[in-house]
Amino acid sequence: MSERRPLRVIQWATGSVGQISIRHMVENPAFEVVGCFVTSAEKDGCDIGELAGVDPVGVLATCDAEAVLALDADCVNYAPLYVDIDEITRILRSGKNLVTPSGFTYPAALDDKVRERLEAACQEGGVSLFGTGIHPGFAGDLLPLTFARLASRIDELVVQEVGDFRNHPSAAMMFDGLGFGRDPDDLRANPPRMFDTMGRTFKESIHLLAAGLGIDVEDYDFVWDSAVARRDVTVRAGSIAKGGVAGMRLEWRVWNGGRPVLIFRSFWRMDDETDPDWGYEDCKYALYFTGLPSFRVNYEPTDPGPNGDIGYWGRIWTALSAVNAIPTVVDAPAGIRTHLDLPVAQPPHLHRKSPGSRP
């Protein structure tokens, strides 16, 4: 990629993914972080470097959305735990491109009114919206679309994810959002809040994959089950008593010809010992192609992560899938953009002298 001026970016939210994004953009000369929006009064006025666990950089976080949107910026990296359509359209109308690891990978699968609002905001601001991440956003859409070039026929495609969450830092996401630690019967009767968010994001991703492969979606469904802890478990975000939910198996499925042909299967766990034991594999992500030929693709981290937190790399992947696409999105025509119409992203300055800090 030819040299260009640093792209001016606003970081929107500083949870675990937002902090990783800040560290990357501060270190990478392709970016200049010019502002940061937070919702916590404790973070208001703090230097974003300190919030991200690095040296101060001279940019202060603020709870004042109007002040942030008044800044001159090329793009907003939007990474809250829960998205707000009104907030997103407001950002787009302000004339700032938006990338996010929180869905919107294929808004054509959403309600027409939502999609139309997003597209109208893009056109009004003259900017683009792009959703990505690790899954959804890469493992279940861009990666299988790439490997599908090797196939003559696809009868079934399974995208499998194994997530180890015992070292995840966010109690808000793990316990309040996903419902780990709850009674399984209560969880079944009252599904957790994050299931609504995941229902939207995974539906988009699997419909993008279907569109990219030319598969008619005759039906689509979501099924899930939970596993309980066989012992009391202490994890980074809190504690789970014996008998509380410590594992989940989730499947999002596209049907064609009376059977599922595209399947997103996720195993999420807080401990190695759960009931039932679904026989988790070690590999983080795997693609299973059944057809001509049948083959498997898998990838996983090769490092245990800081303090043994293997899930940290998943958060790295989630954050950087969005941030590294910013130059491509800024250059794209105005409108909703997806993997089906964007060129292959060319991440800038990934090979550079390391300052010896965390990635």
Automatic annotation (TrEMBL):
InterPro entries reported in the protein's UniProt record: DAP_DH_C (IPR045760), NAD(P)-bd_dom_sf (IPR036291)
Stretches assigned to the 2,4-diaminopentanoate dehydrogenase C-terminal domain: 141-346
Origin: domain of life: Bacteria
Name of this protein: 2,4-diaminopentanoate dehydrogenase C-terminal domain-containing protein
Protein species of origin: Parafrankia irregularis
